[in-house]
């Protein structure tokens, strides 16, 4: 009788664990979603207002350095079949209210080093 009860418990456990993909779990996006097309619009010497118009407000402005903006985006997938979790970031540095450096996970356009004024 003990063996039969143990067998029922084991079979039930495996059956229920096979059903975990049936439960719907939502994806959890956090931060600023940045489109490659918008990032390619960035140019050297753009003002903070121009950057905010193109990309929106940054997620984080450094408390100790107001001239460094962080755009972060993270996607935590609820289900593995929808893809892997990922994180992208873009860090923009300003000097005298103008872009001097852009670093991160995005490719800049070839025209990035040409200011808009010219």
Any descriptors?
24% helix, 3 helices, 5-stranded antiparallel sheet, 118 residues, alpha+beta
Structure, described:
The chain has 118 residues and is an alpha+beta fold. Helix content is 24%, strand content 27%. Strands 1, 2, 3, 4 and 5 form a 5-stranded antiparallel sheet that branches. Strand 2 (60-61) and strand 3 form a beta hairpin. It is rod-shaped and about 85 Å long. The N and C termini lie far apart (87 Å).
Number of contiguous helices: 3
Strand content: 25-35%
Spans of at least 5 consecutive residues whose pLDDT stays below 50 are none
Helix content: 10-25%
Mean pLDDT across all residues, rounded? 86
Q: What is the quaternary state of this protein?
A: single chain
**Sheet with the most strands, sense and barrel status:** 5 strands, antiparallel
Content-based structural category: alpha+beta
The succession of helices and strands, N to C, reads: HEHHEEEE
Radius of gyration: 24 Å
Measured between the Cα atoms of the first and last residue, the distance is: 87 Å
Large-scale geometry = rod-shaped
- Overall strand count: 5
Summarize this entry quickly:
With 118 residues, the chain is an alpha+beta fold. The chain has helices spanning 2-17, 36-39, 48-55; strands at residues 28-31, 60-61, 68-76, 86-95, 98-104. Strands 1, 2, 3, 4 and 5 form a 5-stranded antiparallel sheet that branches.
């Amino acid at each position: 009788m003990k063996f039969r009860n143990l067998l029922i418990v084991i079979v039930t456990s495996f059956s229920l664990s096979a059903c975990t993909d049936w439960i719907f779990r939502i994806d959890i996006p956090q931060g600023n979603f940045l489109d490659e097309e918008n990032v390619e619009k960035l140019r050297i010497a753009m003002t903070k207002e121009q950057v905010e118009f193109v990309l929106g407000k940054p997620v984080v402005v450094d408390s100790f350095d107001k001239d460094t903006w962080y755009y972060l985006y993270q996607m935590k997938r609820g289900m593995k079949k929808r893809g892997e979790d990922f994180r992208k970031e873009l860090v923009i540095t300003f000097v005298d209210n103008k872009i001097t450096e852009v670093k991160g996970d995005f490719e800049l356009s070839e025209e990035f080093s040409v200011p808009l004024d010219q």
